[in-house]
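Example S7 (structure tokens).
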């Protein structure tokens, strides 16, 4: 059975995931960290055109949604999580912050069919999973009281490039709402694992979306959050 990209459906098994038949990864590496304010988006800027300083983040005043100041932070290696993140931000008039490894993952880096690829080596050797970020703390971090944290599922857990975002920021006083995308795995313990890495903040139950989740699905989840 194939999905919309013509990729043969994979089966995921405990601790690793196996390929049933050949597939190609349509990965795209991302550039420097980007922070976009809802105000600049509304004014016609997209994420590639957001006002950025040398660290790749903006100095814009945080956008306000109702009584909350909301940030949607996300890591996305191949664009699926980014699409969900941008929809959440659009729904809530929130700002976005793209978590970006200092050394972004290339298509070949993400090729889990290659035993020597970067992700496979990092998966096999946890000491290699210490991934510095181009920017760790979003501008105006202290001003946000609600922070969404989005990530792809890698090997049944959160993708490790998001680790430093969780461990190196102080989430005290913030409501944290995790979400993830995956091909077929559930969110499992990934959000709880990330909350443990963070150690601060009021982490809510997470939400998993499929790779090609529809806007309606995202909208329904967001509207049920009562923000
Ligand atoms: C290294 C790697 C490991 C993955 N592991 C899993 C997995 O265990 N379970 C799963 O359902 N999908 C897995 N996937 C698929 C991704 O979770 C899925 O494509 C996700 O939507 C990618 O998000 P992104 O496009 O924002 O990077 C994996 C993908 C990669 C690149």
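Recovered sequence:
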């Amino acid at each position: 059975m194939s999905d919309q990209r013509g990729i043969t459906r994979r089966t995921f098994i405990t601790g690793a995931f196996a390929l049933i038949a050949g597939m190609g990864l349509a990965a795209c590496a991302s550039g420097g960290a980007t922070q976009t304010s809802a105000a600049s988006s509304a004014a016609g800027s997209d994420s590639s055109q957001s006002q950025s300083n040398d660290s790749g983040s903006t100095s814009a005043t945080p956008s306000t949604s109702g009584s909350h100041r909301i940030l949607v932070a996300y890591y996305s290696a191949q664009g699926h999580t980014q699409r969900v993140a941008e929809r959440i931000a659009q729904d809530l008039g929130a700002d976005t912050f793209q978590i970006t490894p200092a050394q972004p993952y290339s298509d070949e880096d993400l090729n889990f069919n290659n035993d020597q690829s970067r992700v496979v080596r990092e998966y096999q050797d946890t000491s290699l999973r210490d991934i510095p970020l181009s920017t760790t703390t979003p501008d105006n971090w202290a001003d946000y009281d609600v922070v969404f944290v989005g990530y792809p599922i890698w090997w049944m857990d959160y993708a490790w490039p998001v680790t430093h975002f969780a461990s190196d920021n102080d989430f005290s006083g913030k409501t944290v709402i995790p979400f993830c995308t995956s091909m077929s795995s559930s969110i499992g313990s990934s959000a709880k694992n990330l909350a443990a890495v963070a150690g601060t903040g009021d982490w809510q139950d997470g939400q998993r979306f499929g790779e090609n989740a529809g806007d309606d699905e995202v909208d329904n989840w967001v509207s049920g959050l009562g923000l």
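Notes on this example. The chain is about 20% helix and 20% strand.
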